[in-house]
Specification:
Blueprint: E1 9-14, H1 18-29, E2 34-40, H2 44-53, H3 66-69, E3 72-75, H4 82-91, E4 95-98, H5 101-105, H6 109-117, E5 120-122, H7 131-137, E6 142-151, H8 160-164, E7 176-182, H9 183-189, H10 195-203, E8 210-216, E9 223-231, E10 235-242, H11 253-266
Parallel strand pairs: 1-2, 1-3, 3-4, 4-5, 6-8
Antiparallel strand pairs: 6-9, 7-8, 9-10
Helix pairs in contact: 1-11, 4-6, 9-10
C-alpha cells in the first residue's frame, strides 16, 4: 500500500535504540517503496544529534505525532512505553509494527480497537524463525509448543524476574536455568529479552499454553532459541543462533526482519505468509 503521493510508504520509527537506529539508517539510505518520514524518542535532543551525526535526514517529533507523519509506525521502544506508541497509531488507522510483542500480550484490547479503526497490528518475525510454519500448524491442531532460550548472562542483566527473585548472574561459570513457565509469565519477567516467545505464542496456541525455558549460559556467545512444536500436521524442531547487536539483549537480525516486513508491504513479490 504505497503512499498516495507516489513517493513511497511513509515510515515513522519510535525509539532510537539498537533496533531503531539501525532501521533509521537503512531507511535513510534508501529502500525502494519506503521512506523515513519521522522519528520519535524519549530524549529528542539526543536523537536529533545521533541522526545528524549519522547523516540521516528525518524530523524528531513527539510520539503522538508519528501517525500524522507516517502510514506505518514502527514501535521499537522499551515495553513500558508500548501503549504510548500503539494507541495513537491505532486511533489514526495506521499500520503498527509492534516489536514489543510481550507488551502486546497485556494490551490485546488494542486488537479490537484496531479492527474498529481500520488499523493493523503486525508483529515482525524478529529474532525468531518458523512463524509461518507455526501459524500454518495452528490452522489444524497443535498439541504443544516449547521454546528454550539460551543467552550470555549479559543479555539477561536487569530483567525484572531476576531482580524479584534475587538471582545474580555475576561470575556465572556454568549454564543456569533462570526461568521455566508460560510464555506470558516469561514475557512479563523478561520484557527486554523474550519478545520472541510472545510472538511464538501469538502465532500458535497462545501465551498460557506455550512453554518457555530461559537459560543464562556463559558458554554461548549468541542468543539461541530452540522451538519444538507437536502438531497433527507436522513436528517442528527449529534452532536459531543470533549474533547480538550493540545491545546484548537484541540480535542483529531483528532490525533486518523489520526491514523485510516493511518491504513486504510494498513489494510486488512476497515470499511466505
Amino acid at each position: 500500500m504505497p503512499a498516495a503521493d507516489g513517493k513511497g510508504l511513509g515510515v515513522g520509527v519510535a525509539g532510537l535504540g539498537a533496533i531503531g537506529m539501525a532501521l533509521a539508517a537503512r531507511l535513510g539510505a534508501g529502500v525502494p517503496g519506503l521512506r523515513l518520514t519521522a522519528v520519535a524518542a524519549r530524549d529528542a535532543a539526543r536523537a536529533a544529534r545521533r541522526l545528524a551525526e549519522a547523516g540521516i535526514e528525518a524530523p524528531v517529533v513527539p510520539l503522538a505525532e508519528l501517525p500524522r507523519r507516517a502510514e506505518v509506525v514502527v514501535e521499537a521502544i522499551p515495553a513500558a512505553h508500548f501503549r504510548a506508541v500503539a494507541e495513537p497509531a491505532i486511533e489514526a488507522g495506521r499500520i503498527l509494527l509492534a516489536l514489543s510483542a510481550g507488551a502486546l500480550l497485556d494490551n490485546l484490547d488494542l486488537v479490537e480497537r484496531a479492527r474498529a479503526r481500520g488499523a493493523r497490528i503486525i508483529v515482525p518475525t524478529g529474532a525468531l524463525l518458523g512463524l509461518d510454519a507455526v501459524r500454518a500448524a495452528a490452522k489444524g491442531e497443535i498439541a504443544s509448543v516449547r521454546m528454550v532460550t539460551r543467552k550470555p548472562p549479559a543479555g539477561l542483566d536487569g530483567a525484572p524476574y531476576l531482580e524479584a527473585h534475587g538471582i545474580s548472574l555475576k561470575s556465572l561459570a556454568a549454564p543456569l536455568r533462570v526461568f521455566q513457565g508460560s510464555a506470558r509469565d516469561g514475557a512479563r519477567g523478561f520484557p527486554a529479552n523474550v519478545n520472541v516467545a510472545a510472538a511464538l505464542a501469538l502465532a500458535g496456541i497462545g501465551p498460557d499454553r506455550t512453554q518457555l525455558e530461559i537459560w543464562a549460559d556463559p558458554t554461548v556467545s549468541r542468543n539461541t532459541h530452540t522451538i519444538v512444536v507437536e502438531a497433527d500436521s507436522a513436528r517442528l524442531t527449529m534452532t536459531i543462533e543470533n549474533v547480538p547487536s550493540e545491545n546484548p539483549r537484541t540480535g542483529r537480525i531483528t532490525a533486518l526482519s523489520v526491514i523485510a516486513c516493511l518491504e513486504g508491504l510494498v513489494a510486488p513479490l512476497r515470499v511466505g505468509s
